[in-house]
Structures are given as C-alpha cells and as structure tokens.
Design brief:
- The chain has 121 residues and is mainly alpha-helical.
- The protein has one domain.
- The protein has 5 helices and 3 strands, in the order βααβαααβ.
C-alpha cells in the first residue's frame, strides 16, 4: 500500500495515546481511531490506513470501514453510530487492543513502510 504520511512520529504518538486512553472520554461519540489518525495522511484517509493495518487482528469485523465488531445484533456501522462511549467496556478494550496491534505491526514489520512516503519523522 502506497501511503503519504505527513508526520510518522505524530501518527505513532497518537496511536500510543489512543492505546492508553482512559475508559471514559470527554468525546464519547465519533472519537474513533480512524478519525483521530486522518490528520497524518495526504490523499488517503485514516479509514484506509486502519483497514490495511488491522488485517490479521483476530477480533476484526468483516466491515471495511468499521474494524471493531459490534457487541450485539446491530451491524458494525450502526453500533458505532449509536454507541454512547466508544472507549468504555468491551468496545474500549477492542479499540485500545487494535491500536496496540497496529503499533506492534509498525515496530516488527519494517517492510510495511517501504512504499510509504514519509514527509516528516
């Protein structure tokens, strides 16, 4: 995957922050991983990056845009849109776990970055 990253370190720091975010946040709705990472990319979105990087993560949903699986019978998108706090309970655990998974992939799979254009470390 070809990616243009404005700030690699900034993206990594944001992932570290998200992986340790408190169980409850001030921004309970729409404070998802993808939207928080979008500011670090040119031409691509956080959704595309998270979709690519979440491949291989065991709990991953079948949804392209919503990698965190629903906790009930609602589809992943509906659950995301109706969830009162994305970072509480099981949903929060899964989000923090996915951030740690992405950080681990960035650290251990050095060839992931070979096609990436990094404008600033």
């Amino acid at each position: 995957m070809d990616i243009e990253i404005k700030s690699y370190d900034g993206m990594v720091y944001k992932l570290i922050y998200l992986s340790k975010i408190p169980r409850e946040t001030e921004n309970k709705r729409y404070f998802g991983i993808c939207s928080q990472l979008s500011e670090y990319f040119l031409g691509r979105t956080g959704e595309e990056f998270v979709h690519f990087m979440s491949q291989g993560w065991e709990p991953r949903s079948n949804s392209t845009l919503y990698p965190i699986p629903s906790d009930d019978e609602r589809d992943d998108q509906t659950f995301y849109e109706e969830c009162d706090d994305l970072w509480a309970g099981n949903q929060g655990y899964l989000r923090r776990d996915l951030c740690k998974y992405i950080l681990n992939r960035l650290d251990t799979e050095k060839n992931l970055c070979s096609n990436w254009t990094i404008l600033s470390q």
